[in-house]
Prior knowledge:
The complex is a heterodimer. Chain A is α/β, with parallel strands linked by helices. Chain A has helices spanning 8-25, 43-56, 64-67, 89-97, 124-128, 143-146, 156-167, 173-184, 194-214, 254-277, 290-296, 298-312, 349-359, 361-370, 470-478; strands spanning 30-37, 71-77, 111-119, 132-140, 283-288, 333-338, 373-378, 386-392, 395-402, 409-410, 413-414, 421-423, 456-457, 463-464. In chain A, strand 13 (456-457) and strand 14 (463-464) form a beta hairpin. In chain A, helix 11 (290-296) packs antiparallel against helix 12 (298-312). Chain B has a domain at 187-335. Chain B has helices at residues 15-18, 55-86, 88-135, 138-151, 159-168, 175-211, 215-236, 243-260, 269-282, 284-307, 320-335. In chain B, helix 3 packs across helix 6 (175-211) and helix 8 crosses helix 10. Chain B is extended and about 120 Å long. At the A-B interface, loops of A face helix 6 of B.
Amino acid sequence: xxxxxxKIVDELGIAxxxxxxxxTGSFTPTLRLGVTGLSRAGKTIFITALVHNxxxxxxxxxxxxxxxxxxxxxxxxxxxxxxxxxFAYEQHLEALTAKTPYWPESTRRISQLRIVLKYQSAxxxxxMSGPSTLNLDIVDYPGEWLLDLPLLGLSFAxxxxxxLERANRPGSGREAQPFLxxxxxIDPLKPANDGDAEKLALAFTDYLRRSREHGALSTLPxxxxxxxxxxxxxxxxxxxxxxAQGHSMRSTSLYAMLEHRYEAYKDQVVRPxxxxxxxxxxxxxxxxxxLRALNAGPAAVADLExxxxxxxxxxxxxxxxxxxxxxxxxxxxxxxxxxxxxxxxHTSHDRLESILNRLVANATKRARFAxxxxxxxxxxxxxxxxxxxxxxxxxxxxxxxxxPMKGESLDGITYDGKTEIALFPGDLPARPxxxxxxxxxxxxxFLRFVPPQKLDRNAEGDLVLPHVRFDRALDFLIGDRLA
Amino acid sequence: xxxxxxxxxxxxxxxxxxxxxxRAFEPAKVExxxxxxxxxxxxxxxxxxxxxxxxxxxxxxxxxGILLSAGLAxxxxxxxxxxxxxxAWLGWAGLxxxxxxxxxxxxxxxxxxxxxxxxxxxxxxxxxxxxxxxENDPDRAKGVVTSLEHIYAxxxxxxxxxxxxxxxxxxxxxxxxxxxxxxxxxxxxxxxRAKALTAASAxxxxxxxxxxxxxxxxxxxxxxxxxxxxGAIAALYGARPGFFGFWRLTGAILAHLAVTGGLVLxxxxxxxxxxxxxxxxLSARLGEGVVNGLMTVRVxxxxxxxVRPLPFETQPQPMVRDFIPELTKLTxxxxx
Lengths: 483, 336
């Protein structure tokens, strides 16, 4: 029986916070945009591009308020919560627009940002009172932490069973071996001892880290083991899965201690994270790095699907009753986005979208049933390539042209991060299900590219970030709130 | 007390005869009867093409044309020879004038052909744009945008809009987005001007009807204004119809009016009646003015829908309703 992710106290807190928001929101409404994605799905890039495009009124022909001339402008504002760092928009932009541009480093801590959007409503009533404003709140966080959300519904025994089953899979044998050996040598019923707990936790963390490096595995909770932030070494992070114990045990046993710590981890680390940042969202974008999973093979694809389904099940989606609206906030629009669409030719975007649809099919069904509107798009928040075609052996191949990152290799050639190449990454399968089948030889190779080198400037001298369908994503996510 | 009776009224059907055994066939033998699926193009948005002539009509026109041109040629020949007979100098002058006339006629004809082709291009463009939207085909949509840029290449008022389209299109990957962009940037300003033209025409018609002494005068004026309006709107959207082009355009507009009754789907007839009723209360002539004005509005809307090279997707369709306040306001002012 899965547990409820929140407790009654949390629910009360959430309802009160919503009420406070509703009260202040009657002057300036706030829209909380949840940017969801596993690690390296492109959350930071997406947020940076979003902020930059809104601030500079970038090239967004599909963003209705802008093309209809109703969008007046945007500015960054102070975030109401003083204890959380601000999203380092300027540094990220600098990285992307440097002389030799590079992608920002992966996110290691939580940060947030508020943008104030000014627009004129086209509606008869709202338009009469002149320009309106809308606060757009965005949170950036390490994608690893997202994997913790399903833990809220699992007890220690359930989680241990799941984690050990995964460690014992033939695929993860090599990485898990040291941890499993250590586990065998320790009796969970012996009296608790910090030394043992630390040894176990260390071995377990090691296993998680190594399996992430070796495969593109996405389902590896607890996420803070990989990116502890300032919790490193604290008791809440010093636990590991243990085999289930049938009979009753003393409260001083190792098992009881680790179970206690697991619960503490859930209560003090995961639940506040969920409550403060995910329980009160209005809109959600789910970024999925499909191409990386495709590169890694069927196991990774299946893994990605499981992870997405279990993570997305934690969010509150659906329509809200009009009477309850001051107390309840639910996600009423979800966009599923296959990121890095610039790494394939635009003729393959349809297939990329159908693969994405297959990956999030369960999550979509659930969201639609709850009454939320969903859409899926192949996007690239920043387009790093351009397109061309090449003739080889009498057939014309659609290629993408860009500079692969240093260390990327194809056909035995390793690139130095300076040479521009034209790449034909292989045809995406027409039938998405074939990606899950082991026997099917999928000959795909997607390289990672460095950010675009030469950027255009618009009439005001601001840099224009090229993108793929980013404007449509934006229009779906916030366009209707600026109507 | 009678006993209950049951009698069969029909012979029981033999059930076994109805059960058909399962069989398998080769697909090659099967006659495929699946209906072809056409992405639903809104038929009312596309003007019905003029009906091709039957063979009899064609023969009549052809024969008549041959006779007429033979007659004209003969007349010209006789005129020139008469002129030569009078005076050689006069003959040469006549021949020169005839040459100039012929060259001018050829140029005119070429222009007419071009104008007719342009109308056809606009029609094809509308179909293409609808298809590109339905199928989300970026290549087709970019083709549409290229032809639009070609049509409006000489228009100074659209320079900025053209530039904005040209800047954005290379970065777009969805057919319907490209068409929507073109409609928003290129069509929207033209729509606004076409609406202004229509409103101005309708106002003039209403005013003339209200003050004209004879019914014949207002009918003549309505026809005159409608023709002028249709021509102006066609020129605005880049059709520049010549004489024959205009003839075809008129046919298409009339056909459109006949199909829709001049009403757009969302237009309520009630509002029109209310508007007219109010004006008619003030004065019978004013009521007639509003009616005639509305007729002109319908012609303007039909012309817009016939010549506009893109279907209405992102922009609102012009509706009779939009013009009513202006008409009633005008007649109200006149009544004071």
